[in-house]
Every structure is written in structure tokens, then in C-alpha cells.
Write a structure and sequence with these properties.
By secondary structure, this protein is an alpha+beta fold. It contains five helices and seven strands, in the order ααααβββββαββ. Strands 1, 2, 3, 4, 5, 6 and 7 form a seven-stranded antiparallel beta sheet that branches. It is elongated and about 75 Å long. It starts with 8 loop residues before the first helix and ends in a 6-residue tail after the last strand.
């Protein structure tokens, strides 16, 4: 199953570290053929790029005034900024932020699962996985993590945001033992041709490396198309 990854916060820190460790830039005037409109267009695009980097790396809402101040201060006197300036601050911030976001996601996930457990048809297993059978299939169940299955799926956050889907690329085929624990257990609850909802706590999903952040509870809608038993291949 595909797992979407963005540029890591560490990569952003390296990028910013590199930018701050070079010699002071020489800010030359633009050549005469470069118009104000050209400069404004490029400047605006660079602002968009910075915003994309902030969003992609899940840095949250930063202080634009301080971003501009840092930019101006560095251009004014780069000698005030040693090679560790950016790294130290970004690593400290990202460590604190990841811990805080993780705790918040854990709390929200627990609240979501507690509410979901009360819904009709939702079953909670000993591991903490929750599932709901939407429709039954032909009675051919996966019986081992070594079985290979073909399925269509949608992955969503607990807020209902669609994160990933097989709709565009078509069904995926994989051995159950190669996916997250919530799938290994959950897919064995549905038979070929059936549909199931999986409500997966973070410890049965991606833990601190979730596609929506650390400790995220995830929701999967799965149509099981085919089951290929490992025992049949022997």
C-alpha cells in the first residue's frame, strides 16, 4: 500500500541551515531590462514557495513578521548568525511541536474511538481495533498474515478528510504481512467480495509517522476483491 511522504522537517532544516551557512549574499540591483513587474512576480512566487514549505513540513502557523525580520537581519549582517543558528532553533521547535501534536492527536483519537464504539454494528477487538462490516462477501476469508489480497480502499482522517485512495490507480495487491497491524487483523474479518470499515488506533497504524501527523487514528474503507491463500501456493 502506498504511504504518502512529504519533505521532512529535517530536510527543511538542512535547507535553511545551508542557506544560513553560506557567505553573506551580495544584493545587487536588477539589470535594467528587469522590470518592477518581473521582480514583483518572482518575489511573490518565492513567498508562495516559502508558504508551501511551511505547509508541507507541518510547521503550523508561523509569525510572518519574524520571518521578514530574520530575512532582513541576515541580509544586513550575516556574521551574527553562526552555522548552528537555524538548526538549533528548528530542531528545538520541531521536537516540541511534534510532541504536542502527537499528544493532541492521541487525545482526539481516543475520543473518536470512544464515540465510535457506541455506534451500532461497530465491533472492538482485544487489540483495540474497531471495525464494521458494511456488506458480506462469498465466505472466502483471509486466514493468515501470509495470504495475499487484492482490494480497493480509501484512507481518511477522523475528521473525514480523504488522505489516499486506490480509485485513481486501481486495486492494490499485497501480502497482509506487509501492511500495518490494523490491516493484518482487520482484513481477516471480511470475506472476498465484502466491504469493511476499519477504525485503526495509532499504535496499530503508523504511530509517530502517520500521514496526518504523529499518533493519528485512521479510518479505512476497504472493498476486498480477491483472496489468495498462501496455503494454496504450496
Amino acid at each position: 500500500m502506498k504511504y504518502i511522504k512529504s519533505i521532512s522537517a529535517a530536510a527543511l532544516a538542512v535547507l535553511m541551515f545551508t542557506a544560513c551557512s553560506v557567505s553573506a549574499p551580495k544584493v545587487d540591483p536588477q539589470p535594467s531590462s528587469i522590470t518592477k513587474a518581473d521582480v514583483d512576480s518572482a518575489s511573490y512566487a518565492f513567498g508562495v514557495f516559502m508558504a508551501q514549505m511551511i505547509g508541507t513540513n507541518n510547521l503550523g502557523d508561523l509569525n510572518l513578521n519574524q520571518i521578514v525580520k530574520g530575512y532582513k537581519d541576515y541580509l544586513k549582517n550575516s556574521d551574527n548568525f553562526d552555522n548552528s543558528f537555524v538548526n538549533d532553533r528548528m530542531n528545538s521547535f520541531m521536537g516540541k511541536r511534534m510532541e504536542a501534536v502527537g499528544q493532541e492527536n492521541l487525545r482526539k483519537g481516543q475520543e473518536f474511538l470512544a464515540k465510535k464504539a457506541k455506534e451500532e454494528g461497530v465491533i472492538t477487538t482485544e487489540s483495540g481495533l474497531m471495525y464494521k462490516i458494511i456488506s458480506n462477501g462469498n465466505g472466502n476469508f483471509p486466514t493468515s498474515p501470509r495470504d495475499t489480497v487484492t482490494a480497493n480502499y480509501k484512507l481518511s482522517s477522523i475528521d473525514g478528510e480523504l488522505i489516499e485512495s486506490s480509485e485513481g490507480s486501481g486495486p492494490v495487491t499485497f501480502p497482509l504481512e506487509n501492511v500495518i497491524p490494523g490491516w493484518v487483523e482487520g482484513i481477516q474479518k471480511i470475506d472476498e467480495g465484502g466491504k469493511i470499515m476499519l477504525y485503526v488506533p495509532s499504535d496499530l497504524a503508523y504511530g509517530e509517522n502517520g500521514p496526518t501527523g504523529p499518533n493519528a487514528t485512521l479510518v479505512f474503507e476497504v472493498d476486498l476483491i480477491e483472496v489468495m491463500h498462501a496455503s494454496d501456493a504450496q
